[in-house]
Design brief:
The protein is mainly alpha-helical and 105 residues long. It has one domain (27-104): Rossmann fold (3-Layer(aba) Sandwich). The protein has 5 helices and 2 strands; from the N terminus they run ααβαβαα. Strands 1-2 form a two-stranded parallel sheet. Helix 3 (64-79) links the parallel strand 1 and strand 2. The radius of gyration is 22 Å and the shape is elongated. The N and C termini lie far apart (61 Å).
Length: 105
């Protein structure tokens, strides 16, 4: 394999390195904007639920869990009371009734 520039050896990546390189994503929100978005979602959840009574935040694995945890912490800071949090797969959510979720908390 020849380099495009003379004297510069080609870069050889292993399949693991290539996988890591290929998964680089563009940052859509910085830390401050992400916190603001989480706070807005938390406020909306509390308003639509008319408080935090009977509220359970469920994060769907895998990417929804960190967001759900952050929303639960944000609501706890806003309301001064812990909010139950659970994580689940999308399959178990589809087969779980709201009544059985309430009995777990």
């Amino acid at each position: 394999m020849r380099s495009a520039r003379a004297g510069v050896p080609p870069v050889v990546l292993s399949s693991a390195d290539l996988a890591v390189t290929m998964n680089v994503k563009k940052r859509l929100l910085d830390r401050i904007r992400m916190q603001r978005a989480i706070r807005r979602m938390a406020i909306e959840v509390v308003e639509r639920n008319r408080g935090i009574e009977d509220l359970l935040i469920v994060g769907i694995r895998s990417r929804g869990v960190p967001i759900g945890e952050r929303m639960a912490k944000e609501i706890e800071q806003m309301e001064g009371t812990p909010v139950p949090f659970a994580s689940s797969t999308s399959r178990s959510i589809a087969t779980t009734s709201p009544r059985s979720l309430r009995s777990r908390s």
